[in-house]
Amino acid sequence: MTIPILSDDLISHVSGLVAAYITTQRNRYIHVALPLSINQRTAMAGFFSSQLLDETRLLVLNEERVDNPDFYPMLQRMGFDNLPDQATMAAVTFADCVVSHGYCTDELLFHELVHVEQYRQLGIPKFADLYLRGFLSGGGYFEIPLERNAYALGELYGRNHSRPFSVADEVGRWISEGRF
Ligand SMILES: [Zn+2]
């Protein structure tokens, strides 16, 4: 595993590329993605705002896979050998648009909706910047604080589906404590 050291200027540049990738993918998929089903809304209702549940769109891909960003080869030439491969992810979330590779379980949906909430509170540019910086400083995908937050809240949900808590409050608390 290699994480090269990048200059601040280069990090800002790549962070802009990540944000552009997220926006492009979101705009590509949002028109064919669907609102959450009644069952999905019911399962998520105690954890997410009704506005988020109304506005989020979900696309289930069966054959197709989400493309990796076209700046990956540039990063690989710089020495990155552990970039997250979008095709092997169970799902990828682009702002308000969740794209799932195959059937989306409630546990997977929950994890992705935490990302939707993170995007709602941070906006795409800040989300992209924090995601990239988290990857660079942590050494890989699982060390990214935005992921750790989603996995931690997902674990709480997994332990007890019938004990509601506010994901928005939890994400807000992580932001105010500077944990991203
Ligand atoms: Zn995630």
Automatic annotation (TrEMBL):
Superkingdom, taxonomy of origin: Bacteria
Organism per entry: Edaphobacter modestus
Protein's recorded name: DUF4157 domain-containing protein
